[in-house]
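Long-time lurker, first post. I've been practising inverse folding by hand and with some scripts of my own, and I keep getting stuck on stretches where the structure tokens seem ambiguous. Below is the full token string for one chain I'm working on. Before anyone asks, I'm not after the true native sequence, just a reasonable design that respects the backbone. If someone could post their per-position residues I'd love to compare against what I wrote down in my notebook.
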């Protein structure tokens, strides 16, 4: 059986633990920057990189342990930075694909992707590193999804959408075919995106418009 560690100990960790194939993988440690209770009985929680170092020094065979960063929300930069750091420490990223998710044979995925229950990644779609396709979200044909993107539960991307690194697609959002979502953009929950969104912009509403931060 392969051993796995998680960085992150709240909701995303619970979802990933449920999605992980328990017949092939065993969670052996969990890390978080906060001193909180471990969400998994019998799995010890260690605090921060200092706690990680102490734990690592006690491992005799870390080559057979993979890592998964359980950080959701719009924190794609943090997720990818931690994933790369753990990889440098000798813990390669684990892809977690829920058994009830659909991943097309022609789709391609980067390291550390998380494809959760009832979601679909369709023909010729390409996912970068540390991408989350959350519960019941869909990525249709020929979409290109950059590193650290999070597609929240129930969001739907039509065909040929391009999403740049670290963008966040909110819960239940709809993005029409062929549009471009810029780096670090945020699509609000339930938004219907009918036009491309520039890097760093936040859009909300139906149809989606740039958010007025002064309201």
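-- Answer (accepted) --
I ran through it position by position. Result:
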């Amino acid at each position: 059986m392969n051993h796995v560690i998680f960085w992150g100990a709240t909701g995303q960790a619970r979802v990933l633990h449920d999605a992980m194939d328990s017949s092939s993988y065993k969670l052996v440690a969990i890390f978080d920057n906060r001193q909180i209770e471990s969400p998994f009985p019998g799995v010890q929680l260690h605090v921060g990189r200092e706690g990680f170092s102490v734990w690592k020094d006690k491992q005799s065979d870390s080559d057979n342990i993979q890592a998964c960063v359980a950080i959701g929300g719009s924190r794609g930069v943090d997720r990818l930075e931690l994933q790369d750091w753990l990889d440098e420490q000798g813990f390669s990223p684990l892809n977690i694909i829920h058994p009830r998710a659909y991943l097309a044979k022609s789709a391609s995925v980067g390291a550390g992707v998380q494809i959760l229950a009832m979601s679909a990644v369709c023909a010729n779609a390409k996912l970068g590193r540390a991408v989350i396709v959350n519960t019941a979200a869909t990525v249709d044909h020929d979409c290109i999804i950059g590193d650290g993107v999070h597609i929240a539960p129930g969001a739907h991307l039509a065909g040929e959408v391009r999403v740049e690194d670290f963008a966040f697609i909110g819960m239940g959002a709809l993005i029409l075919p062929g549009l471009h979502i810029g780096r670090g953009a945020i699509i609000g929950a339930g938004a219907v995106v009918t036009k491309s969104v520039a890097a760093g912009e936040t859009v909300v509403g139906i149809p989606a418009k740039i958010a007025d931060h002064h309201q």
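A couple of notes from the structure itself: The chain has a mean pLDDT of 95. The helical segments are 11-19, 48-57, 76-88. Happy to go over any region you disagree with.
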